Hints:
With 343 residues, the protein is α+β, with helices and mostly antiparallel strands. It is built from 10 helices and 13 strands. Strands 1, 4, 5, 6, 7, 8 and 9 form a 7-stranded mixed beta sheet that branches. A 4-stranded antiparallel beta sheet has the order 11-12-10-13. A two-stranded antiparallel ribbon has the order 2-3. α4 crosses α5 (157-167) and α7 packs antiparallel against α8. The longest helix has 21 residues, at 235-255. It starts with a helix and ends with a strand. Residues 33, 36-38, 52, 134, 136-137, 168-170, 221-222, 312-313 line the site of (3R)-3-hydroxy-3-methyl-5-(phosphonooxy)pentanoic acid.
Amino acid sequence: MHKNDVVKKILGNRYRKMPKKQSAKAFAPANIALCKYWGKRNLELNLPTTSSLSISLGDKGTTTKIQLLVSDTPVSDTKSYINHDQITFNQRLLASADPVAQRMSQFLDLFRPQPNFVFKIETRNNIPTSAGLATSASGFAALVLALDQLFDWQLGKKHLSILARLGSGSAARSLWNGFVKWYRGSRKDGFDSFAEPLADIWPELRVGLLILSDQEKMISSGQAMQQTVQTSPFYDAFLKQSPKDIKILEKAIAQKDFHTFGKVTETNALAMHATMLTAWPPICYAIPRTIEMMHCIWEERKQGFALYFTQDAGPNLKLLFLQPDAPIIKKLFPQIEIIAPFS
Ligand code: PMV
């Protein structure tokens, strides 16, 4: 099954119809995985090898505005219209050869009513892009929400989650606030691989963004996943452990057991990075400062402080702690940005 077949099945007679509105605008939060998605069982449809669990970052994420325009490029020149979408990313108009523009345009091809139409997109992130802060997740989720409004599809969140997944796997989880679980599913067409929010809320929970570098990542998460799945001898252990981690995390969330929550989140992230370190060629997203900060966190924990971290496909760390400790955290890490996911 191809992406187009999934879109056709979801949209039915709304497939490739003209928009109902002039323009639309939507916001989606970034999300941080507590139990990671690392590996695909289907590359084209971004179907994961494991279920995953995340926390969304409230008002930190992506806002996207979208319009559909008639292209001035001849329709017969089929190649050229594809990259003529006008995509402004963080106030910068992207060249059509830009990898971000190409990825978005390819996704937009799934919804273009006719070849001679182009999309005008203005998208803006309020957190650093491509530094392991999952902005591709909020980016594709905001884009799908904006498309839903523009075309007036009126899709339910389950179908929006499936469409967002076709853009970027973790985007399936960026349609809600709070804790979100994305199911691995087992169907070949991926219709059972979508996300859903958990009912639990944890108002005292804090996520601290410890930005150690805003450099673009050295290897994309998609490429890194493949390399890991294909070559790491530790990958099977990660696959086996993941469902157990989700179960423990869900229970810890329900019982507000912060120590278990932090421990499993941190171990799950380190296990994911262990699969990368043992891949060939090896992948290491950490920079010296990342390791230095890990030691600092472990030292604080030895002193009895309830502080844990997680790390994604980048050098930055996301710290997990509870609200009463926020002032101490600010002192320890003056550059930290603290997010209250439930306020
Ligand atoms: O959705 P992608 O392809 O950007 O992959 C995200 C991978 C991690 O952020 C490392 C883990 C996750 O579950 O978000």
